[in-house]
Every structure is written in C-alpha cells, then in structure tokens.
C-alpha cells in the first residue's frame, strides 16, 4: 500500500508541475491549483491542522466557515457580466431587426405586386 501511495504522490506532483508550467506558458496565473512549494508551506500545514475536525462533518463545516470568512466575490467581474448580458440582448435585437426587416420588406413588395396585378386584370 505504501508503494502505491508513493507512486500516486509522484504522479500527482508531476501533474501539478505540468499544469503549473502550462498555465505560466500560456500567460495565466495558477489560481486553482497550488504549487508544490505552496503544498509544503508551514502556513498551509498550520491552517489544515486548525480546520481539521474530529469528524468529516466537522471538517467540512470548518472549511465552509473559513471559505465564507476569507473568500469574497469579485464585484467588478459581476458588473462586467451584467453589462455583457445587456450587450447580448441588444445585439440579438439588432440582428433580428436587420435580418427580419429585409425579409418583411421583400414579402411586402411581393404581396403589393400580386395585389397590383390582380387589380389590373379585374
């Protein structure tokens, strides 16, 4: 069992490094996955000991309380999201008008032509 755990630990470490390298290569920041240095830091070890409860339920509760106190919503991104929704709605209305208006004019002209021919021949 220890051999499997050590192999799994090596694989996890390699995968974390590959993901970190790819993220930095493409210009992003590693927001969701910690680096190997972060995993071994004393601050993380202290925090994990403090959050660990007597049961899984207590540990989860401690994590959720910590998350509520320490992780905040990015307000500026919310404003951007709202403005993008408005732009999408206006864009769809704009597209609908510029697609449907010529089609309606086309059918109106055809209908007017048909009605004018029917009046000429009657």
Would you write up a description of this structure?
This protein has helices spanning 2-25, 36-39, 42-51, 56-70, 75-121. With 122 residues, it is mainly α. It has one domain (2-96). It starts with a helix and ends with a helix. It is built from five helices and no strands. It is elongated and about 95 Å long.
Outline of this structure?
The chain is mainly α and about 120 residues long. Helices cover about 80% and strands about 0% of the residues.
Write the topology of this structure:
Elements: H1 2-25, H2 36-39, H3 42-51, H4 56-70, H5 75-121
Structural class: mainly alpha
Domain module count: 1
Q: Enumerate how many helices there are, as a single number.
A: 5
**Series of H and E elements:** HHHHH
Instruction: Give Rg in angstroms.
Output: 31 Å
The biggest beta sheet is recorded as: none
* pLDDT < 50 runs, ≥5 residues: none
Q: Helix fraction?
A: over 70%
Query: Can you give the mean pLDDT?
Result: 80
What is the molecular shape? Answer: elongated
- Give the strand tally: 0
First-residue to last-residue Cα separation = 97 Å
Q: Percent of residues in beta strands?
A: under 5%
């Amino acid at each position: 069992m220890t051999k499997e755990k050590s192999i799994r630990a090596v694989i996890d470490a390699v995968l974390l490094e590959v993901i970190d390298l790819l993220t930095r290569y493409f210009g992003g920041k590693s927001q969701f996955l910690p680096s190997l240095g972060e995993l071994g830091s004393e601050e993380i070890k202290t925090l994990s000991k403090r959050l660990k409860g007597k049961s899984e339920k207590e540990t989860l509760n401690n994590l959720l309380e910590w998350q509520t106190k320490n992780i905040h919503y990015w307000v500026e991104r919310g404003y951007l999201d709202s403005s993008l929704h408005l732009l999408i709605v206006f864009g769809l209305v704009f597209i609908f008008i510029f697609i449907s208006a010529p089609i309606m004019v086309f059918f109106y002209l055809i209908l007017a032509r048909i009605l004018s021919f029917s009046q000429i021949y009657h």
